[in-house]
Amino acid sequence: MSYVIVKMVRTSDGSSHLPVILLDSNSEVMEFENETEAEEMRRRFQVNSDSGYSYQLKKIGIDE
């Protein structure tokens, strides 16, 4: 099981949010092996957001 961070970006009219999966420096999906590591990074993004974005964790993959 892996985790990704989703940035909720407001649409230009401000009426709704568009989910955007974060990418790493190689333009690949920023993927985390465990929830703790992903949550720590999500918190960093949230604390440093000066544009009012919100960040969420999403579980990806298939449970084995």
In short:
The protein is globular and about 35 Å long.
| Beginning-to-end CA distance, first to last residue | 8 Å
What's the number of extended β-strand segments?
Answer: 4
Structural class: alpha+beta
What general outline do the C-alpha atoms trace?
Answer: globular
Strand content: 35-45%
Residue ranges: pLDDT <50 for 5 or more in a row? none
The ordered string of helix (H) and strand (E) elements is EEEHE
Rg estimate, integer Å: 13 Å
Number of helical segments? 1
- Compute the average pLDDT: 92
Q: What percent of residues adopt helix (DSSP H or I)?
A: 10-25%
Q: For the report, how would you describe the main beta sheet?
A: 4 strands, antiparallel
Protein described:
- With 64 residues, the chain is of the alpha+beta class.
- Helices cover 20% and strands 36% of the residues.
- The chain contains one helix and four strands, in the order βββαβ.
- It has one helix spanning 35-47, and strands spanning 2-10, 17-21, 31-32, 54-60.
- Strands 1, 2, 3 and 4 form a four-stranded antiparallel β-sheet that branches.
- A hairpin with a 6-residue loop joins strand 1 (2-10) and strand 2.
- The longest helix is centred in the middle third of the chain and has 13 residues, at 35-47.
- The radius of gyration is 13 Å and the shape is globular.
- The N and C termini lie close together (8 Å).
